Amino acid sequence: MHENTIDISIIIPTYNRDYSLAMTLERFSNQTLPLSRFEVIVIDDGSTDNTQNIVAQLQHKMLYRLSYIKQDKAGPAAARNKGIKQARADIVLFTGDDIFPKEDLLERHLESHRQYPGVAVLGFVEWSSELEITDFMRYLAPDGLQFRYGTITDVNNCGFRHFYTSNVSLSKQWMREDLFDEDFPFAAYEDTEFAYRLEKKGLKIVFNKKAVGYHYHSLNLEYFCKRMKLTGISAAFCIRKHPELKSIMLPVDISFAKIIAWGLRRLAFLHKIHKRFFWSSKIIVSYIGGVAEGLRTAHQHQKKDY
Questions:
Q1: Count of CB atoms within 10 A of residue 136's CB?
Q2: 172-197 exposure pattern, b = at least 16 Cβ within 10 A, e = fewer
Q3: Region label for 194, one of left (φ > 0), alpha (ψ between -120 and 50) or beta (otherwise)
Q4: Where are the beta strands (DSSP E) in 7-140?
Q5: How far is CA 199 from the centre of its chain?
Q6: Can you give the pTM of this predicted structure?
Q7: pLDDT digits over 137-182, tens only?
Q8: DSSP string, 272-290
Q9: Domains defined along the chain, listed by start
């Protein structure tokens, strides 16, 4: 069933998302790239749901090579590193357990690698049509704070801040000496910091908008603010490792963020007047609060959910 030549290895870390993971894995069977030319590696980061049984069932059903690795809860960085070591192909695609691949996703990534050898290839992520997409979700992506595609100024050199592990590929040659930093406390900025180290060694990120994945994950303001606080904590961790990034990761003074937070508590009616301004303010305050907490309490956080 499987040929020896594997063109691309897909690495998917997962934690307690058996339902969306199953749908993601099933959709890889529809790729236009021959099924014998790729493999999918699932790294289960200590799930307590039915993930292991579901993957086992799919291993008998899928006609592509599907591998499964179980680890104790250690975060997506550790999971991806295990996948990198397991990958049989030179080209590795990082994606998520809630990213449905378009039928030609893999061919599009490989097409870019043939055209631009030695780069990382950033694909495009948009909301799955199987979701009810709210105004808030449209605000977040694809050109908002969730995925900032609208800030890409050079599609042939996107910059390390656009290394989104929901849909990005590169050669294993870049990972002989550099892997994801497993010390990051949350599932945030570990991919940015990884790309920053590689960019300093010459890596360029090329954007292929035709390499599409569909995000199957509903989000609301409350959830996203909590997530952005954790992102802020991870940003503080990154700043401690790379102080030169502080002006990028902390563009607003913490004291100013506190003033914004104070004002929002007294101007809650703003969401009725200008929703996007209200959303942006709440999210920025959450993020800055996370940075402030992270700078105060470095190295005291345990690994959390994705």
A1: 16
A2: eebbeeebbbeebbbbbbbbbbbbbb
A3: alpha
A4: 8-14, 38-45, 65-71, 91-95, 99-101, 120-127
A5: 18
A6: 0.91
A7: 999 998 888 889 999 999 999 999 999 999 999 999 999 999 999 9
A8: HH-HHHHHHHHHHHHHHHH
A9: 8-215 (3.90.550.10), 221-296 (no CATH)
| Residue 109, burial from CB neighbour count under 10 angstroms (0-12, 13-18, 19+) | buried
If one counts every other C-beta atom within 10 angstroms of the C-beta of residue 266, the result is: 8
Secondary structure (3-state) at 19: helix
Pick left, alpha or beta for residue 164 (phi over 0 → left; psi -120 to 50 → alpha; otherwise beta). beta
- pLDDT for the residue numbered 277: 82
Distance CA 115, CA 103 (A): 20
Kindly calculate the radius of gyration of the chain based on its CA atoms and give it in whole angstroms.
19
- N-term to C-term CA, the chain: 34
Which tokens hold the place of 69? 């690795």
Strand order in the sheet with 205-215: 65-71, 38-45, 8-14, 91-95, 167-171, 120-127, 205-215, 99-101
